[in-house]
């Protein structure tokens, strides 16, 4: 029998970026806030001497334990879905901070085009370019860039983002609060080459601190040491903006906030008398296996996209999407991300072993609708970037195509090219398709007996065409940069769950202005439950040519404002 606990004003399921933002803002507004985190407590003190590539980058110390919780995968509905038994295509975070602990720190704002992709495409090219007959389902987000801009700014101020103005981005109300990172030789060569080609390079917007920074909440971060241990690693020096050193620290300054760890939420509870309301959640203590009922006036799902979807599905909140009839909204518009680029090999040496997660130069001349799509067979595009995140010897061993995979020549090439090669690539948008979606698996369950999320996904023709186009542009840039040998990425085949590609999963709990095609409104409030909010990359109606975190952070601040408004007025929020 589950034990019922004392009611709180606001409950967040998850304590990463989104949960931390909602918790901090609600706590500052005087609400009694509880964050339930199924993982363990952790912070900077746990990351001292973190430079262990085997432990963190190969054995995934900071990631989810797939023996307890994972997803099943198939390319199409006529295949049998099987569980991902070890971290593969994407790396799911775990414990306090979530994936925000081990990220690189790229913080782009999505383009104005992204939020109105359907209407802007029809306006410029006609409705046929949306290719509805081919199964593509592009939708506007129910919010514009201008409406979201103040929340982008708020997230950048909180996370101490450094960078320079992007020629193609939407209007901003404030400059970046921090300056750009250092400009390395690799970045300078990229900048000079792309400018000569008529492009518009800019510093990659970075959550790695270019200088000591104190955010508006009084949280302090230190300047980056360029140690090259960002991606898949936590920061030992508080030089990377993470939830633990920003929003969660802010929330914890308030007596009306509690962070409770080892609490795995298994169900969101609906009011028996009023089906338009939730009453709280049921969770299991992962250490004692005891069950608890945690009542709350407002529940906010702030975990990773798969778990946000899963909790709605197992709690029978919303209608599951059916690809045959295209009825239902829960689970639709799942998107991933691709990387179309090339590796260049040079005669001169570079300090490739030093760097930071977001140390790089980028350009958006082929992103969004910044170029004419009349003569290409896809919509959208991608940012093209050179990144100097720091190569490490286990994961990185670049050799030219045609080099033997063993023997003396392999060893010589490995040693030589380690400091003479780097990658230029497009981070490509992906297109929503009616056959790419999330649902619950009928055969496999997690350690608590709850069905696993089943992912049905394959790259679309648009994805493949877009990826190849960006790879070809990357080759041209490397040629201009003076590379002596260039290996372009191969064409995309079918999507597979291995090897690692990106952790940028989106969709499944999309936002919009119509409950017939979206799960939440533009306040991230569930259409069917007034006091339930769902926020994260699952809200994206498609994926862009950028990392998602900046936009996720903006949506979280929008959501937090909505939570506070709703708690005050107890009325459904209007745009």
Automatic annotation (TrEMBL):
Domain Glucose-methanol-choline oxidoreductase C-terminal: 432-556
InterPro entries with a match to the protein in the record: FAD/NAD-bd_sf, GMC_OxRdtase_N, GMC_OxRtase_C
Keyword tags: FAD, Flavoprotein, Oxidoreductase
Ranges where the Glucose-methanol-choline oxidoreductase N-terminal domain occurs: 143-335
Family: Belongs to the GMC oxidoreductase family.
Pfam families registered for this protein in UniProt: GMC_oxred_C, GMC_oxred_N
Listed name of the protein: GMC family oxidoreductase
GO molecular function: flavin adenine dinucleotide binding; oxidoreductase activity, acting on CH-OH group of donors
Keyword rRNA-binding: no
Origin: domain of life: Bacteria
């Amino acid at each position: 029998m589950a034990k019922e606990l004392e009611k709180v004003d606001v409950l967040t399921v998850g304590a990463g970026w989104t949960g931390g933002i909602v918790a901090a803002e609600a706590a500052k507004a005087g609400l009694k806030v509880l964050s339930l985190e199924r993982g363990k407590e952790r912070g900077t003190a746990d990351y001292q001497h973190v430079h262990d590539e085997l432990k963190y980058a190969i054995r995934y110390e900071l990631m989810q334990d797939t023996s307890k919780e994972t997803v099943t995968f198939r390319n199409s509905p006529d295949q049998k879905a099987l569980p991902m038994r070890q971290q593969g295509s994407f790396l799911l975070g775990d414990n306090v901070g979530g994936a925000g602990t081990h990220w690189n720190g790229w913080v782009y704002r999505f383009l104005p085009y992204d939020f109105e992709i359907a209407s802007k495409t029809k306006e410029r090219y006609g409705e046929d370019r949306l290719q509805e007959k081919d199964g593509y389902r592009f939708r506007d987000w129910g919010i514009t860039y201008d409406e979201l801009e103040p929340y982008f700014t708020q997230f950048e101020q909180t996370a101490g983002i450094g960078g320079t103005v992007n020629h193609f981005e939407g209007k901003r109300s404030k400059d970046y609060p921090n300056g750009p990172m250092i400009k390395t030789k690799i970045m300078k060569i990229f900048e000079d080459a792309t400018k000569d080609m008529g492009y518009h390079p800019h510093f990659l917007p970075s959550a790695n601190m270019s200088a000591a920074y104190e955010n508006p909440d009084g949280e302090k971060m230190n300047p980056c040491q360029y140690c090259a241990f960002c991606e898949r690693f936590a920061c030992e020096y508080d030089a990377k903006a993470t939830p633990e050193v920003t929003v969660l620290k802010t929330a914890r300054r308030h007596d009306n906030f509690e962070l409770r760890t080892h609490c795995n939420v298994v169900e969101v509870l609906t009011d028996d008398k009023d089906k338009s309301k939730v009453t709280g959640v049921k969770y299991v203590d992962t250490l004692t296996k005891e069950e608890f009922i945690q009542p709350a006036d407002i529940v906010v799902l702030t975990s990773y996209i798969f778990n946000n979807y899963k909790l709605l599905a197992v709690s029978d909140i919303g209608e599951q999407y059916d690809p045959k009839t295209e009825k239902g909204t829960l689970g639709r518009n799942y998107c991933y991300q691709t990387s179309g680029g090339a590796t260049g090999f040079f005669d001169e040496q570079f300090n490739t072993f030093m760097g930071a997660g977001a140390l790089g130069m980028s350009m958006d001349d082929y992103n969004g609708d910044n170029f004419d799509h009349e003569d290409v067979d896809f919509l959208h595009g991608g940012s093209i970037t050179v990144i100097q995140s720091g190569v490490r010897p286990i994961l990185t061993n670049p050799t030219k195509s045609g080099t033997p995979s063993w023997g003396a020549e392999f060893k010589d090439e490995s040693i030589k090219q380690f400091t003479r090669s780097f990658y230029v690539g497009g981070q490509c948008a992906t297109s929503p398709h009616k056959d790419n979606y999330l649902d619950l698996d009928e055969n496999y369950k997690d350690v608590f007996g709850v069905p696993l999320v089943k992912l049905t996904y394959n790259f679309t023709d648009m994805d493949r065409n877009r990826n190849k186009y960006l790879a070809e542009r990357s080759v041209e840039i490397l040629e201009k940069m003076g590379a002596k040998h260039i290996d372009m990425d191969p064409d995309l085949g079918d999507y597979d769950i291995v090897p690692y590609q990106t952790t940028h999963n989106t969709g499944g709990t999309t936002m919009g202005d119509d409950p017939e095609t979206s799960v939440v409104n533009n306040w991230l409030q569930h259409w069917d439950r007034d006091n339930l909010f769902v926020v994260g990359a699952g809200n994206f109606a498609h994926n862009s040519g950028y990392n998602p975190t900046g936009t996720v952070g903006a949506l979280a601040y929008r959501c937090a404002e909505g939570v506070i408004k709703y708690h005050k007025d107890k009325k459904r929020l209007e745009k």
